[in-house]
Amino acid sequence: MRPIGALQDETQAKRFGDFLYARGIDNQVDPDSRGEWEIWVLDDVHVESARSLLDRFRRDSSDPVFAQASHVAFRRRRQNE
């Protein structure tokens, strides 16, 4: 498990975590000591692609692709319960 970066807003960080999860990238979003929300990727194979996606998210977090992923992640989690 490796950190790929942090976002200041909890809601945004969790939204990005959902986006990764919807793409098949297991991750964890945790608060850090600076008051930011750190995103961790569980499988090293996905670290570089997740970092690239985080850069994309930082440039335009309002892109509908990110909002749609939250719905996909929610359904996937319910199926896995």
Mean pLDDT: 93
Q: Please trace the helix and strand order, writing H or E for each element.
A: EHEEHH
Arrangement of strands in the largest sheet: 1-3-2
Low-confidence stretches: none
Biggest pleated-sheet summary: 3 strands, antiparallel
Q: Which outline best applies?
A: globular
Q: Tell me roughly what share of residues is in helical segments.
A: 40-55%
Continuous helix count: 3
Number of separate strands? 3
State Rg.
12 Å
The termini sit apart by: 23 Å
Which class of secondary structure composition applies to the elements? Answer: alpha+beta
Strand content: 15-25%
Which key phrases capture this entry?
globular, 53% helix, alpha+beta, 3 helices, 81 residues
Describe what this molecule looks like in 3D:
Helix content is 53%, strand content 20%. It contains 3 helices and 3 strands, in the order βαββαα. The longest helix has 17 residues, at 64-80. The protein is α+β, with helices and mostly antiparallel strands and 81 residues long. A 3-stranded antiparallel sheet has the order 1-3-2, covered by helices on one side.
Write the layout of secondary structure elements.
Layout: E1 2-7, H1 10-22, E2 27-31, E3 37-41, H2 47-59, H3 64-80
Antiparallel strand pairs: 1-3, 2-3
Helix pairs in contact: 1-3
